[in-house]
Specification:
homotetramer, 338 residues, alpha/beta, Alpha-Beta Plaits, eight-stranded parallel beta barrel, four-stranded antiparallel β-sheet, 14 strands
């Protein structure tokens, strides 16, 4: 960490700062220029509250050199983390697809989709039971009953299941859930992250709509610092001024994350774009960018005319897309440039 | 609600849609043009899931006419909601200031600040016990102990207290807290909002970093739909590309909110800007924009050299600022243009 | 175009509006509901100034159904526009790469890079002579001399050249330039766009940093409405809150643009990301997303230690990347899902 | 400028960098830590191309200490620049208002508005002759004829006039124009800025829709570096995700700019918000934030039903607003906190 002091810092304040820094077991190198004094802090600065230093009267600016995250940092853990999903490896060069409907609606729906996505090559089934909706008047999911149906589909298909938690109090219902998803709106629900850090199963952490990549990794760090190292990072679009898509998929987050962290990185093209017609191209692009996998919405809808055309793919389109995405992933990995 | 259908909609799908809409007790007016068919839905459309309709194959676009919020909508409740804080009215032309430190640090600190801000004209004391921090390694607040100290300061000063909740499970600790704050990161923690809707005390709801004004109001609606009508809205800066300030204070949200809702609207210039030196101008601007009040960070720091210069004002600056802000508020209200 | 009127519009104002709309040769269908009156405008509404209508006292909202662009609209011109670059087709299923240095620096530099990128499969040479720089104290390009050197490289390599214009007055220097580039900062320099609309050569139009896709197409429309139909659209990153990349590459713009317009769409991964190490993954992702090509920075730098490591690829990396990108493009086109 | 080198920089590359830096007359202080080497550059670094250094293989990060702007920097010119508008001072504690219609439409219109805004206290008349419009099919302004009418209004009212230039080639028409406006879309039209730097009259420079404050000041620097020191900075809203207002007015830019530069700072509440009903509150807020003035749209519209309700104020509302804004400005200046 580099601390730039203002011109002619008040001597007593400077001494206070130096004493405090040294009390944190940091070595402090002082370099005085004509106009500025620079402090170089050596040691474990990841736990230092940068804002506290920035806030000091005598400080012009603070610049981290070391990243503020440790457990998820590739520098301290060069090898890719590989997470097993139903016996299949995600990460470390293995591209996998999670698929299923946005919401669990009925037993027949979720079981049917489970069979369909398994047949097309998905390694896990997604399906929402607790649905975060911006309006209190919108459908909030089947909740407990949704979890029950999802577990029926797990049993019927043999696929592990991924579903979203919205509050710590729901945790007992997730006992047989294989992967717990934290939604974008809860990415900085720190109490929830800490609680999930005490679980013994993978956490699929979605990036917040307006969260920086660093904040995203800090949220993964919350989970890992509490003891759970199985975190799957999921980019799902960020909020920008563009309105042609629901959000703007930030695919450059893939190579940036792969450089900064050893955790697997997957893409959710369905929520990112909001339109089924954009999902195939963004799925293929995600594979080409070096992502470790996808989480895609797939819906069968014989009965429900109201679900046509959403951001969900039909099982038929998904059955064509899944192998193509894997082929693209294999091709770029062979290419050796990523 | 206006639904634009695609050219030549498939007849069976159209009939499905019409049947479903009518099953929701809506009148449907069909207007056929040469190129497009437009459906006008009349009735209570606020509880309709617009995305479901948007998702239909035959639908080109859906446009709400009625806002999707009801309880907080000024159209259905033209008079300003006034919320009492320690016997003082907030809203309805009454400008009030809440002040206090970012974090509760010690009994002497919080009691001293309480006396100082009261003397300067604040009607309530703020102070954080549970602190949402992006890093798990940063100070997370004094938590239970922080609440205890805050309540001591309440007793000592007579000021009602405002403090942030981070999870439903903390609710029992908030029994004697006068106003419960929901932080920006939890603005769409819908389970928490529902739980707070069952409380009998005012909720200070902060706008999320990248939440639209409509989403902000929908979150207020979650609280109100669960039974608690005392919601104070707080704009505290949105995330943009600009880096000279921590966030970008969206002051035009004040007149927009005052038009759309009857709830009181206050401004947090401290978190919005991130720098104490910008707080006075943004406080005065907020008053001039027609806000109903401010929530400002004020810190006394004899003991703690490390807290100098943060986004907190000194009690001295606050004592000069508070009356000026009230004067500006009074001046613009007299002017009669807002 | 759909115009929603406010409840109980003032009769005289309504008549004024109807008269004016009819004077524009539009058919107006009036549909009165209990609460709202809706006007449906039929005819060529692309030339109507929507803001003028929106501004009326009696108007609640205006919604376009027809897009506001015509010449570049795929609805009126379903077939892909194909633009020839040195005898090679860009667009219509043909993936092509333009490459070269950010700035023309010397004859040997530009000629050498030209030979290198040609050998690797590029169909055109890019190189900046006029450089838009945010600081007046930064290198502004070799200007006239840069154009001269670029044309030498064209002659030596046989590659057509692409270079940026910054002002109409520079146009005479661009006589032998094959493709004129309009930079992101000039995307809404409408006088320049009109002047380029009178040229008889392809225009490579870059999307502005904070321009919506619709604004981007409207700028293409400016060129086309002035007579030049050869416009190549280039997405090069938009401005967001994320700081790990220079800008955020909006790859979903590719399928959105391909749907809305018949013009070719290429990607500039170098400016979008700002880091050479991110260019390969974003190039491959662009190909997988269905882009028609790339414009990539490539720099040889034996002499200039200062240019190492920029957003430019080395000729060696480019020689590996170019065929891989084409392979990915071919693979996804065969897949038939885009 | 502080340059952080990567761990173990290649010796030859380091020597190249040091030689180059010294060739620019900079003193280089080298400070070696265990993990990182830091170079401190002392001298005039404002003309150094930071990106070139950042681009080097051996460089981890570059951090400016000195701002990259000089002529507009308050550090080198502590006193407020005051610009005369028709004999009235703008800046240096003097709050002034520029007002007039968006577009010049006719002689009677512009002359009438001129008289009205003068009577209400405006010191200059604004009116657009060349109008940047996102659609080529929208009204582009009266152009040459608009300038002629504006000059008639100048003569009739005695008010100096402000109008926008869109291209260097229009400059001869601006001979009698008192203040030349550069619109948001042209803020980084660097050739235009250089040309205006050779003029001998004030330039009103609008902030780009997605320009940072630093980029805004660099554009002012372009004008000043070319010889014209009379630049008025105008914040007019930035592009964000919020859609309730046309743009998001960034009022915190006022105190930030007042700290960084000595140039006068004014606010355009009309374009920022896009709705007349939001203009009064944002005008008063701008005054309270410490702005040096306003530029407000005012339109008389007896004849033109189509202009009702736009972002323009009526002369009557303006006549009430102008004195209130001045009163607020005076009040906060007396307060002494800004």
């Amino acid at each position: 960490m580099i601390v730039l002091l203002k011109r002619d810092p008040e001597e007593k304040q400077l001494q206070n700062l130096l004493d405090w820094l040294r009390s944190l077991s940091l070595d402090v190198h002082i370099s005085k220029g004509t106009n500025y004094t620079v402090l170089g802090l050596v040691g474990d600065t990841s736990t230092i509250d940068m804002e506290l230093i920035q806030a000091l009267d005598i400080v012009e600016n603070v610049k981290r050199i070391q990243e503020p995250f440790k457990s998820c940092n590739r520098k301290f853990h060069p090898d890719d983390t590989v997470i097993e999903l139903g016996g299949k490896p995600l990460g470390g060069g293995q591209f996998q697809i999670i698929a299923g409907p946005c919401s669990v609606e009925s037993e027949s729906q979720i079981v049917e989709v489970a069979h369909a996505v398994k047949a097309a090559g998905a390694v896990a089934l997604r399906g929402g039971a607790f649905k975060p909706r911006s309006s209190p008047y919108s459908f909030q999911g089947l909740r407990d009953e949704g979890i029950r149906l999802l577990l029926l589909a797990k049993k019927a298909s043999g696929l592990p299941v991924v579903t979203e938690i919205m509050d710590i109090s729901q945790l007992p219902l997730f006992e047989e859930v294989d992967v717990i998803q934290v939604g974008a709106r809860n990415m900085q629900n720190f109490e929830l992250l800490k609680a999930l850090g005490r679980e013994k199963k993978p956490i699929l952490l979605k990036r917040g709509l307006s969260s920086t990549i660093e904040e995203f990794l800090m949220s993964a760090e919350y989970i890992m610092a509490s003891g759970n190292e199985e975190v799957i990072l999921c980019e799902r679009g960020i909020r920008t001024f563009e309105t042609q898509t629901r959000n703007t998929l930030d695919l450059s987050a893939v190579p940036v994350l792969k450089k900064l962290t050893h955790l697997p990185v997957i893409i959710d093209p369905s929520h990112a774009t909001g339109y089924a017609e954009l999902v195939p191209s963004m799925s293929l692009a995600a594979a080409a960018a070096g992502a470790d996998g996808l989480i895609v919405e797939v819906h069968n809808n014989p009965a429900c005319a109201l679900c046509d055309g959403m951001q969900s793919l039909t099982p038929e389109t998904f059955a064509r897309l899944a192998p193509q995405a894997k082929q693209v992933s294999a091709l770029v990995r062979e290419g050796g440039l990523l």
